[in-house]
Design goal:
313 residues, alpha/beta, Spo0b-associated Gtp-binding Protein, Chain: A, Rossmann fold, 2 domains, 16 strands, 16% helix, elongated, binds guanosine-5'-triphosphate, binds magnesium ion
Length: 313
């Protein structure tokens, strides 16, 4: 399940309070240490799919606070920084300033909220006019910001095709997604995502004729593949109308968004275990006329899956 939009508050850690203390005895004088800095809060873009789930309950995240200063000029410990993983492709909007930030590449790290400075201890606060300050400074608050996050994964590869063409089965072969597969159309109701060698593959619900005008399910999910590098167009080899199958999906893509239809695309002739080798050859030739790369695959043919994997790499 894709969690789409959340409103959250992020906060840098508060600075620790300075300490007001006095060294006893003959050398008496202020010796309170400074508070530690609050941790900074970062956002890191990741292709780890579990990053989607963290906001199903949590709406507030903060970096660690700095600790208070101690006696004997001891500075408090700094708060630890916090890096929040967000799916690559997420869009975040600062609700106060309206600023938009998009996370487009993996491991992108961005400082979002500064931690607060620690308060000064009474040792540090000494001055020519006040050589024995009795009080210390309170720590400064960490920056706090409210964001609207559009959690979306930028897929690198998009599996498209008619219902029942074997998209989800391939996703399962290529990744550890383990999604539902069944012998009827519209098994997939929401896009499934899987990670293949650090790249995200999106399996989109089947597209049918009329999809672009609202039929079926697939079209509203096409936004998930707007930015893919490569479309994997699945066509079932046991269909009686392969070229028509191909054209149906292409037409729907075109009607939805012309640039999507122009995206780099290869054809995956799926379920090739259901046809004989001779037919297989003929079909591949047919598709080659479309000047598209064609790969014949079957989830029951280990070599064909390996070939697909190395092509994707
Ligand atoms: N023989 C054979 N059957 C396959 C192969 N790949 C998938 N299937 C079967 O085809 C049917 C449909 O597979 P899915 O992976 O659910 O197809 P899908 O394109 O995701 O379908 P929707 O989610 O409905 O759009 C299932 O019964 C699969 O077991 C294959 O390589 N060979
Ligand atoms: Mg499916």
């Amino acid at each position: 399940m894709l969690i789409d939009e959340v409103q959250v508050t992020f906060k840098g850690g508060n600075g620790g309070d300075g300490r007001a203390s006095f060294y006893p005895g003959k050398k008496a004088g202020p010796d309170g240490g400074n508070g530690g800095r609050g941790g900074d809060l970062y956002i890191k873009a990741t292709s780890d799919l579990t990053a989607l789930k963290q906001f199903s309950k949590i709406r507030f995240l903060n970096a660690e606070d700095g600790q208070a200063g101690g006696g004997n000029k001891k500075t408090g410990k700094n708060g630890a920084d916090l890096a929040i993983n967000l799916p690559v492709g997420s869009l975040i909007k600062n609700l106060e300033t309206g600023e938009l930030i998009e996370f487009t590449t993996g491991n992108q790290l961005l400082l979002i909220c500064h931690g607060g400075l620690g308060g000064k201890g009474n040792f540090e606060l000494r001055s020519s006019t006040n050589t024995t300050p009795k009080a210390a400074q309170v720590g400064f608050s960490g920056e706090e910001k409210r964001f609207f996050i559009n959690l979306r994964f930028l897929a690198d590869f998009g599996l498209i095709g008619l219902p029942n063409s074997g998209k989800s089965s391939l996703l399962n072969e290529l990744t550890k997604a383990n999604v539902k597969v069944a012998s009827y159309p519209f098994t997939t109701l929401e896009p499934n995502l899987g990670v293949f060698k650090g790249k995200i593959i999106a399996d989109i619900p089947g597209l049918i004729e009329g999809a672009s005008s609202g039929k079926g399910l697939g079209i509203k999910f096409l936004k998930h593949i707007e930015k893919v590098n490569l479309l994997l167009h699945c066509i079932s080899a046991d269909s009686s109308e392969l070229l028509a199958d191909y054209q149906t999906v292409i037409n729907e893509l075109k009607n939805f968004d012309k640039t999507l239809a122009k995206k780099k695309q290869i054809i995956l002739l799926t379920k090739t275990d259901l046809i004989d080798a001779e037919t297989n050859k003929i079909l591949i030739e047919k598709f080659k006329k479309l000047k598209k790369k064609v790969l014949a695959v079957s989830i029951y043919d280990y070599d064909s899956i390996e070939k697909l994997k190395s092509y994707l790499v």
